[in-house]
Every structure is written in structure tokens, then in C-alpha cells.
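Saturday, quiet lab. Running sequence design on the C-alpha cells for the scaffold JK sent over.
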């Protein structure tokens, strides 16, 4: 226990930052790889409508990640601050609640989505050519909702106890299972969209089994034992106050994907298919940045809870500088490699020609995304629900919706492609304003508690 506290309180910032962040980054990249494996094997069928159908169903998977984040990120924010205050038993109680609440949420959402399958698919943009493929993917993913939502909860909670490597291991285990099953279900058994979804669900079940074992056998400050289940209404409010904005970030990603697809539909299903591939490639950069930003969440939350302001200031300075630097490198690298990356998924020359400028447009906003992510993580880690909420509903939500409507009406197809980068820029300005408001409200830059 003493060694864990020293890690949070005294170890060099760059050393402990990478200790927490690198496993998160690695697990996110691996998760993205197995997500891209789905796309790769589906694209190899040469069926544009199949690729488009799976792309249309993808926001449902993102929805489930978002729901898992309510209890994973919301719970880890509160628990890390409790650990900073040396209230370990309270943190343990809350971890039990988060696990079983995520499981119940998964069951409820599966029932609701199955009942509303047809109208939801048409809302997502399915048409007569893509509906069958989108429905296959949707149905299987929804049936696996309890396993998917649960897996994102302990993956986040374990990092509050310093088990970033264990969190990574569970995620990688699920990814390996998925990647092994993808070619079997999609290429060998010819299950198409359903095969990709089945592999994803089984992969998440594998991750769940590892996390349950680790929590029962290795964790000292977290639990899933029902006997520890006890929570007060104010504690639930605290979890949801941070978890819902964190969830909204992913929900807005689903919203943004759906809105983009709907604005692209008038230009043809080939544009939707190309954007589905581009979004997967773009996620390489975004998820690496998310990993580095949110890998620091337990460190920020712990030191904020412990009122160790001088260390908190040092952590934030390092986070902003490093995140912006890595964003710039990734943007240049992926933009340079754009033709090869798009062509890796689909050798159709017309799709490559469409996808390359799409990808480069998306990459214009990378540095702005870095600012947004670190600021959002700071608000979530410190329990500042208002700031976290505003940023959550902006980048791919309210701001994006306004921008894509205006840009598409003025610039047409090119305006649809420009919309995300413009939204990133505007939301980054909002993030900077909110951060400095927080700094001056709490006197964080000049407070003697930093010295």
C-alpha cells in the first residue's frame, strides 16, 4: 500500500505518467486493431453495401462503450479521489456498485434496442441495399451488450489501484480472441457482418472473464463481491455526474458518425463506405491521444483528492505539452501514409481516391483534439461535472451539428468533409476558456499550496 501511495505522490511525473498511460495507449491501439480487422475482412468481400452496412451499425457499438464509461470513468474518477483521501473501504464499495450497475445496464439496453431495431437502423441511415447487412451486425452486437458494457468498467477501475498493466492485459486478451475468430467467422464460415459481430462479442466475454478473475484474486482495494454492495444516493450522484459527461463523449461520437453518414448518403454509398474506412484509420491517432490523456486520470484524481497542488500543476503541464506534440506527429504521419492506409482496406481505386482527401481533412484537427482531451480528462478527474459536460456535448455534438449543416449548405460535399476539423478548432477554444475559468476560480496558478 505504501509503495502504491509513493507512486502516486512522489515518483517523477514523466515516469509515473508513462507507467499509467502506456498500457492504456497500448490496449486502445490493440482494441482498434481488432476493430480494424473486422473492417479488413469485411472489405475483402468486395461488397460495398456490406462495408456500408457495418459502418452504419458501428455507432451502436460506440453507444455500448459510452454506457460502460458511465460506470468505468465515472466510478474511477470518484474512487481515485477517495484513494487520495485514504478512504479505501469507500472506494471498494463503489467498485462493487459500478460492476453490477454496468451489468444491469447492459441487460436493459439489449432488450430496448432489440425491440426498436428497425426504426433505429433506418434512423442510422440504412436503405434497401444496406439494411440486411446493418441488421445482422446490429442484432448480434446488441445481444452481446451486457458483456461489452461490463468489460469497459473494470478496465477503467483497475487503473485507480495502479493496475494499468492488468487493465491492458484484459483488453489485449479480448482483442486476440477477436482477431483469431474474425477470419474464421467472416472468411471461412461466410457469416459476413454477423460473423464480425460474433467475434467481437466473444472477445469481450474473454476480457470479462479475465477481469473477474483478477478482481477476485489480486485486487486489494477493489471488489465485485455482492456482500460489499452498499452505496448512498450522494455517491451515485457523484459517479453519474462525471460518468454521464464521459459517456456523452462517446455518444456524441456515435451521433457525429451517424450525422456524417446521413450527410454523405446523397453523394452515394461509396462515400459512406469510404468514410467508414477513414474513421477507423483516424481512430488510430485519436485513440492513442485518448490513451495518453486519460492514462493520467488516476494520477490527476489522486493528487487532486490529496490536495497535492504543486504535483498536480506539474502533471497538467506535462500532459498538455506531450499530448499536443504527439498529436502533431500522428497527423503528419497518417496524412503522409493516407493512400497506402486507405488502400490497405479496399483496393478499389475509386474508394481510395475518395478516402484519401477525407482522411487528410479529418487530421487537420488533431492538435485541437489534444487540447480538448486533456482538458476533459482534467475536469472528469477533479469531479468538475459542468466543464466535462460542456466539452462532451460540443466537439461531435452541438458544435459539430451546427458546423456540418452550415458547411454542407455552403460548400456541399467538401463542406461535409471540412466540418469535423472546424468543430475541433471551435471546441478547443471553448476548452481553453473553461480551463482558465477553473484555474482562476480555484486560484490554481498562484495558490501557495502549489509551492
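Result came back. Writing it out in full:
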Amino acid at each position: 500500500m505504501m509503495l502504491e501511495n509513493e507512486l502516486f505522490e512522489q515518483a517523477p511525473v514523466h515516469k509515473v505518467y508513462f507507467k499509467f498511460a502506456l498500457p492504456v495507449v497500448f490496449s486502445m491501439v490493440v482494441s482498434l486493431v481488432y476493430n480494424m480487422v473486422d473492417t479488413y475482412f469485411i472489405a475483402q468481400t468486395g461488397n460495398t453495401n456490406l462495408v456500408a452496412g457495418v459502418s452504419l451499425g458501428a455507432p451502436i457499438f460506440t453507444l455500448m462503450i459510452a454506457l460502460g464509461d458511465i460506470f468505468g470513468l465515472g466510478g474511477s474518477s470518484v474512487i481515485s479521489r477517495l484513494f487520495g483521501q485514504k478512504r479505501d473501504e469507500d472506494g471498494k464499495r463503489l467498485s462493487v456498485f459500478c460492476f453490477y450497475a454496468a451489468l444491469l445496464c447492459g441487460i436493459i439496453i439489449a432488450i430496448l434496442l432489440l425491440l426498436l431495431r428497425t426504426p433505429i437502423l433506418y434512423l442510422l441511415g440504412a436503405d434497401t441495399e444496406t439494411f440486411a447487412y446493418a441488421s445482422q451486425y446490429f442484432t448480434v452486437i446488441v445481444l452481446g451488450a451486457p458483456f461489452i458494457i461490463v468489460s469497459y468498467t473494470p478496465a477503467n477501475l483497475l487503473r485507480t489501484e495502479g493496475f494499468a498493466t492488468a487493465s491492458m492485459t484484459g483488453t489485449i486478451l479480448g482483442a486476440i480472441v477477436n482477431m483469431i475468430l474474425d477470419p474464421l467467422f467472416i472468411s471461412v464460415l461466410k457469416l459476413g457482418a454477423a460473423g464480425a459481430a460474433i467475434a467481437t462479442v466473444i472477445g469481450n466475454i474473454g476480457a470479462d472473464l479475465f477481469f473477474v478473475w483478477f478482481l477476485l484474486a489480486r485486487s486489494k482495494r477493489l471488489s465485485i463481491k455482492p456482500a460489499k454492495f452498499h452505496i448512498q444516493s450522494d455517491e451515485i450522484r457523484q459517479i453519474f455526474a462525471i460518468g454521464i459527461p464521459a459517456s456523452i463523449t462517446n455518444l456524441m461520437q456515435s451521433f457525429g458518425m451517424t450525422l456524417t453518414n446521413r450527410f454523405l448518403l446523397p453523394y452515394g454509398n461509396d462515400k459512406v463506405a469510404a468514410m467508414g474506412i477513414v474513421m477507423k484509420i483516424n481512430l488510430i491517432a485519436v485513440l492513442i491521444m485518448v490513451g495518453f490523456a486519460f492514462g493520467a486520470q488516476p494520477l490527476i484524481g489522486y493528487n487532486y483528492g490529496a490536495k497535492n497542488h504543486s504535483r498536480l500543476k506539474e502533471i497538467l503541464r506535462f500532459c498538455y505539452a506531450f499530448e499536443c506534440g504527439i498529436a502533431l506527429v500522428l497527423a503528419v504521419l497518417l496524412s503522409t501514409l493516407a493512400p497506402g492506409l486507405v488502400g490497405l482496406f479496399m483496393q478499389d481505386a475509386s474508394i481510395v481516391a475518395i478516402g484519401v482527401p477525407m482522411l487528410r481533412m479529418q487530421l487537420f484537427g488533431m492538435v485541437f483534439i489534444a487540447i480538448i482531451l486533456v482538458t476533459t480528462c482534467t475536469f472528469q478527474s477533479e469531479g468538475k461535472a459542468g466543464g466535462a459536460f460542456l466539452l462532451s456535448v460540443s466537439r461531435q455534438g452541438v458544435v459539430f451539428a451546427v458546423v456540418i449543416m452550415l458547411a454542407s449548405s455552403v460548400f456541399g460535399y467538401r463542406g461535409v468533409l471540412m466540418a469535423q476539423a472546424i468543430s475541433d478548432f471551435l471546441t478547443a477554444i471553448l476548452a481553453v476558456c473553461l480551463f482558465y475559468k477553473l484555474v482562476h476560480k480555484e486560484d490554481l496558478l498562484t495558490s501557495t499550496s502549489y509551492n
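Notes for JK: The chain has 19 helices and no strands. The chain has a mean pLDDT of 85. Ask whether to fix the surface positions before the next round.
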